[in-house]
Amino acid sequence: MAEADRSTPGFISEFFTPEFINDPYPSYRWLHENAPWFKVPDAPLHVAVRYADCQELLRDRRLGHGFRERMVTQFGEEVFERHPAYKGLGNSILLMDPPDHRRIRTLVAKAFDARRTEAMRPRVREIAHRLIDRFEAEGSGDLVALFNHPLPVLVICEMLGVPEADHGRFIGGSKVAGRIIDPTPMSADELSDADERVRENHAYFSGLLDERRRQPQDDLLTALVHAETEDGKLSYDELIANVSLLFAAGHETTVNLIGNGLLALWRHPDELAKLRADLDLAPSAVEEFLRFDSSVQLSGRTALEAFEFKGQPIAKGDQVLTLLAAANRDPAVFTDPDRFDISRDEAKPLSFGGGIHFCLGAQLARIEADEALRVLFERLPGLELDGVDAPSRKPTITLRGLERLPARW
Ligand code: HEM
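A: This is the predicted complex of the input protein with protoporphyrin IX containing FE.
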């Protein structure tokens, strides 16, 4: 398809409105029916909506990030170098291209492996119980603050080896978390907040990494310090940037997965009853949470060379957005895609991305959400959510989640 006409529920200006953030799914349905692969008028931006197209584009090596080059072209070398938020992101595997991406991802994956992740399952359960012990007697409160947020933060702190005395500093979160990976630029205030956060985290983790070098422990930080392949070890900047990435990616996304999932359950009482009656449905409920209302809505790439995709020319440097959450509602892949069904057994959702950047934490996220659900329903059988018709949402676009989730138990 060529350029979408002006009636496309226009991207950037018309698309990312508060109404869209509140409920993007009618727009995604419209796109499936009218503009499943289109170029945004007057902008070097292409948008993929279908499951198969998103999957193919994510695996296409002609697309990558070219992050440093893009930022320097957009803002100038001096600005890029001056902002730790940009520089840090540029050193993380999330925005790297091969061959550096392969070298560093292999090292990180060696430390953050399936064995270490699966070994966390009992600890995830214990942490969930400990959190509920703290707030059970209160009878009501905000589940995001009391449970959904601290759970994955404490899990990733513990995996990395952040001492318990320091956990508190990470519980608060940041008011601009996630904004840096949105398709719309950050304001000066947001950027300065993000810089400050990155500076604090870098200072903190560099201290811990030095300690681990001197005194190894059985934790992920030590494993990262010592990870080595025939291509060598992680440099200091790479270590810090990727520890920060694991930390950031390791909480915001999972917090939102649990919140979006609980909201969907309460909006579909039959499915809620089904899960309450059989908690062994939790893993398949989590898959449906991921599909139905993904905490990562989209993923962006830059064309590293000019090429054509489905008849549409893409110029070098153009941006391509894969709308993962729209792909998860593709009627060609999912039966009755707008129906929430916790026992659905169809294709895997695209929520964890695809290709060389496929989420490293997918297994951890699934374990966390599975255990969170089981413990929550076991411990709080009378749990009820309030205000599910008008929940308060975070203003971010790429990461979709709830600001608060008022509940009684
Ligand atoms: C619901 C939870 C999560 C979702 C939906 C999610 C989603 C994603 C997606 C879509 C990507 C690819 C981004 C892209 O291609 O542009 C990604 C990458 C990544 N995720 Fe996750 N994630 C989740 C949880 C986690 C957790 C718990 C961790 C680690 C503790 C993690 C670590 C990473 C890392 C390190 C990458 C970068 C991989 C690379 O670029 O090679 N994620 N995630």
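The chain has 20 helices and twelve strands. The longest helix spans residues 188-214.
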